[in-house]
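Today's session is about reading a structure prediction critically. Students often jump straight to the picture, but the first step is always the sequence itself: look for stretches that repeat, for charged clusters, for runs of hydrophobic residues. Only then move on to the predicted structure, which in these notes is written as discrete structure tokens rather than atom positions. Here is the chain we will use throughout the hour.
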Amino acid sequence: MKTLRRIALWSVIGVGVGGACLWGLDAADRAFPPPLPEKLTISTEVVDRDGLLLRAFATPDGRWRLPVVLDQVDGQFVEMLLAYEDKRFLDHSGIDFLALARAAGQFAGNGRIVSGGSTISMQLARLIEPRESRSLGSKFRQLLRAIQIERRLSKHDILERYLTLAPYGGNLEGVRAASLAYFGKEPRRLSVSEAALLVALPQLPERRRPDRNPETAKTARDRVLTRMIAAGVLGEQEATRAGRDEIAGRLALPALAPHVAQAAIRKAPDVQHHKLTLSRPVQQGLEAVARNAASKLGPRISVAMILADARTGDILGEVGSANYFDARRSGWIDMTRVSRSPGSTLKPFIYGLAIEQGLIAQETLIEDRPADFAGYRPRNFDMSYQGDVSIRQALQLSLNVPAIRLLDAVGPARLAARFRQAGINLRLPKGEAPGLAIGLGGVGLSLHDLVQLYTGLANSGSPSILRDGTEPDGMEVPDTGELLDARATWQIADMLSGVMPPEGAAPRGIAYKTGTSYGYRDAWSIGFDGRYVLGVWVGRPDGGSVPGLSGYVSAAPILFDGFARSGLATVPLPRAPAGALRQKRDDLPFTLARFTSESSGLPAAAPSEPAPQIVFPPNGAHIELAAASNAASPLVLKLQGGRAPFRWLANGKPLSGIERRRTAAWQPDGTGFSTLTVIDAAGRAASVRVYVE
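Below is the predicted structure for this chain, in token form.
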């Protein structure tokens, strides 16, 4: 009985002492916790709509330290890491006593360190609390910290933190930064050779840097491959193939969309993860096009581009300048948001309003001649005039005088009101109302504004508010009104789709418009298909003149190249809505045959030419049928005065097509009286009555 009592007493004492020790250790653990912040200091990153990295910014201490999500790291790499560094990681509680015993035995037998006994948890302890010296005291502290870490974090979290903080040479920390810098890709899918190199680097990151010591890095990688064969992770042939891969140097981390990335950080400086609407493949393609184009255009000329989804308003690609770091081009200025003269790019909306109001159709004739609008005298870009042209020709040739005639009819204020409905306010001098000059670029608009307007043309008349992801959270997107009705929008798109591509560009199934501002300061090209709108601006950011700069020559080739390099498939333009027709000129009603100012209810200016007059045959003339019916030489009709083109009629029936010359041929079909009539472009007519005998 005494023996049992002693055993019981010592058991109680033992339990008490053990409990006191555990309580003491727990109290010490709580009193001296490991430095495990809830959030690590990591690089701010800007990603695209699919989570792909666009741009990263170094931490305040100059480190590239990108956050790691374990599920987005190559599984074979993780398996190789644990097999090489800590094969009992999932089983121990921070300390692998078997590994420590093995390391101690090897040290005793060889007099030097052959292998370490550090676990992943112990290495994390060293990373969060770097030791000042390689002493037994610092090692013991590391052991205790590993136990503390295991009490606070799951194995999953420990591995994530380690892969975020592990050194990989230079200012690279974490497996993501290393994979992007050495292989140019995220660590989701690594080759065997790449995975082995990333396993080997953290032990001696500076000595094994691939960019500085490729042979040392290769030797370390091959050592990992050999260990993986012994561990049964890799087959011998697989490891041999991986060992043949060359070691590459260091690459620059992604640095896309600098202007948008900077804007996102300015608006939310405390956020470390910014997601934009951009698409990295689209952005890469547009930036390459802009750089290449600017290098050909000149040292001070820049290029800006925006590609947007017209249905959603999401900006998929946004290039603020040809090169952000090029001081000669003022590359730091985001030219997508700078107000410039839009040149002729607003003309489609003028024509659309006129079609919507029933003033014109595609084949309506309109004058392209010098005109005076209360002192405003527009001139064409090439200083020449075409005479009477169809509306389709006037828009495709971007003639100035016809556009101003139509704007005078629909009213500049009405055009500006439609733009406001689309969320765009014209920038005019303070207190100045919109005038006719806005039709030719006498107003301030940015590339961002123009692309937003053109989303209406790509979207059956309904514009979308553009957004790139830098907008404040919770910001309500304002509703937009109808820019043009669906039928007028289709007519405009149909005409613009007939514009010839620039020289050397392949047809692409898009509709587009170009523009050039006064003084050759800005060149524009805006194009769209059934879903996407791409806008291009070319010019000097300082507003300087560039002789020879024009929308068609300078900006349009970039537009077509941008669509091609974006990687987006062309979406067919919308089909004609109900009631939208492309009528031939002969099928037009009389009121749409020719646009005059009466079409708008305003008085028309008197024609400058004298009225037409038939000079041969004279009125009352007798014509012999035998001579007139000679097929080889029909009777020649002549007139003076009038405005070309002319239409001839015999007894009310058209003789032939419209003639621009002042002569025509007539073949009488019988004897008797006949009436010959000619009608000029101004609608004036002259007639003679002759007798065929």
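Discussion point for the tutorial: Residues 598-606 have pLDDT under 50 and may be disordered.
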